[in-house]
Write a structure and sequence with these properties.
Strand content: 15-25%
Number of domains: 1
CATH class: Alpha Beta
Largest sheet: 7 strands, mixed
CATH topology: Rossmann fold
Distance between the termini: 52 Å
Order of helices and strands: HHHEHEHEHEHEHHEE
CATH architecture: 3-Layer(aba) Sandwich
Shape: globular
Oligomer: single chain
Length: about 220
């Protein structure tokens, strides 16, 4: 089995049962998701892609905030996508949402979604679960329109929290194959810089969560 196939199988095993209670339990510690979505600023009728869309919870919130937006979601777990499809249908936004099974580190937007690029791409607490998380960032940046932006929120390093809190959280997360990425800021600065995009990086909740936005490419001066 390939590394990607193995990761897909692992995610399906993890979430085959958890997906039914995922949103209820995760709301207490996946901090910053709503703040990230509130800052998307999707243009009228714009396109929004979530990598690692899980149960569809974030797409539903984005859809409520931007009722004219076209929504797209990709996830490596078929089990999670099944749950997402049901949730989106119950909320009445399935008709403007396209969900696709795929690898966030290597996807072709046109082939999967019929879109050349997206106005907004966001990744919420998924990079800490993707083995090749650097590849996922690269793929997300490639999928952006020149005036689009990439929005990320994930576990930070809890810089301003007690040491015991950090070690306890990291040990607990490891049981669920979650690894906060200590070099996330450096990697984002490198990749965003190479793509010609400015980066805003913030530490929320005393470093519990890290939030980043890779913005539009500056317009060329004539």
């Amino acid at each position: 089995m390939s590394a990607v196939g193995g990761h897909a199988a692992l995610m399906d095993r993890n979430y085959r049962l958890q997906r039914h209670v995922y949103d209820l339990t995760r709301k207490y510690y996946l901090l910053g998701r709503d703040g990230m979505i509130a800052g998307l600023g999707v243009p009228q009728g714009g396109s929004v892609l979530e990598l690692g869309c899980g149960t569809g919870r974030n797409l539903i919130l984005a859809g409520r905030r931007h009722p004219e937006a076209r929504l797209f979601g990709l996830d490596i777990s078929a089990a999670m996508l099944e749950t997402a499809a049901g949730n989106l249908a119950r909320k009445g936004i399935a008709g403007r949402t396209t969900l696709t099974h795929g690898d966030a580190t290597a996807f072709h937007a046109k082939e999967l979604f019929g879109e050349e690029t997206f106005d907004r791409v966001f990744i919420s607490y998924a990079l800490s679960m993707i083995p090749d998380w650097e590849g996922a960032i690269a793929a997300a940046l490639r999928a952006l329109s020149p005036q689009g932006s990439l929005h990320i929120v994930d576990f930070g390093q809890q810089e301003r929290l007690p040491g015991w809190s950090r070690s306890t959280l990291h040990a607990w997360l490891a049981k669920y194959h979650v690894t906060p990425r200590a070099s996330l800021e450096a990697e984002l600065r490198s990749q965003a810089g190479a793509a010609g995009r400015p980066l805003r990086f913030e530490r929320w909740y005393r470093g519990y969560a890290w939030h980043a936005v890779a913005g539009p490419r500056p317009a060329l001066q004539s």
